[in-house]
Amino acid sequence: MLVLEYKVKGKRKQYQAIDEAIKTTQFIRNKAIRYWMDAPCEAKINKIALNNYSTALRKEFQFVKDLNSMACQSATERAWSSIDRFYSNCKSKKPGKKGFPRFQKDNRSVEYKTSGWSLHPTKRRITFIDKKGISEVKLLGKWDIHTYPVQSIKRVRLVRKADGYYCQFAIDIEVGTEVRIADGEVGLDVGLEHFYSDSNGHHEPNPRFLRKAEKTIKHAQRQIYKKEKGKNQRRKARQRYAKKHLRVNRQRNEHASAIRWIRNLGIQSINTYPNSLELNSQLDVGESPTSKVHA
Q1: How many CA atoms are closer than 13 Å to the CA of 267, on its beta-carbon side?
Q2: CA–CA separation, 167 vs 134, rounded Å?
């Protein structure tokens, strides 16, 4: 599954409609969690039962009915994902907390499936055809989506971030990586003092994005508590604070290209990491263990 992200450009009324759709998604998910908690043990609540419960919510609440039906199902699927994870942790006897499903209060996205939206022939605009009032918005970004047919788009997600709203397209394709065979062997040492050191004598320094931005982030956080709760100045201070964290997150994602560069050279690492982002997050706190990699 490939995810392409574009920034959404619209009017203030359209942004308010997106916020309303996001709040509705959070409402449906929390109602599904409550429905599972209050149900007797004999009911055997599963994914299908929660989808049927979203239909009952559409009949009961008008603002839920205004949201697309498949978007309502996506909200209940989020609830079932947390419930299923809790069941799996209990069955596997995971030590510590099992992750009991909790009510969400900071949802930032709404997900549509194959209906509820219509992509413009130029693929630079998208129209949401449910009754939330989002209508047509512009898409700002690269032209990568033009290389894929509309039928391959299985999910469309509207996400609210610190610097605006984004539209994500989940495309059903197989992402394959081409491994290049190097002419010679290259030895890499991933450690704490340097990001990596190769056998040719090159030392790549650790970026330490969080350490460099730590001073400004702390200053922005202190400014939040100086503002009165419920005022616009406090909301703007929180916005500035969130943007600084978002910048660090994007810097780490871009630096993950170094990991992809190692894979393209056909180098395999002895030490295994769950993902490249975890390795980048450890660079700032100095917890990355030393490992040897050879071609």
Answers
A1: 23
A2: 13
CA distance 268 to 293: 6
How far is the CA of 35 from the CAs of 26, 38, 74, 198, in angstroms? 14, 5, 16, 56
CA–CA gap between residue 239 and residue 223 (Å, rounded) = 11
Write out the H or E segment, with its range, that includes residue 77.
Answer: helix 69-91
Closest to 35 (Cα-Cα) out of 86, 63, 67, 76? 76
CA dihedral 66, 72, 74, 78 (to 10 degrees): 120
Low-confidence ranges of the chain (pLDDT < 70): 175-185, 257-295
Q: Is 262 helix (H, G, I), strand (E, B) or coil?
A: helix
8 Å CB contact between 177 and 8:
no
pLDDT confidence of residue 266: 54
pTM: 0.74
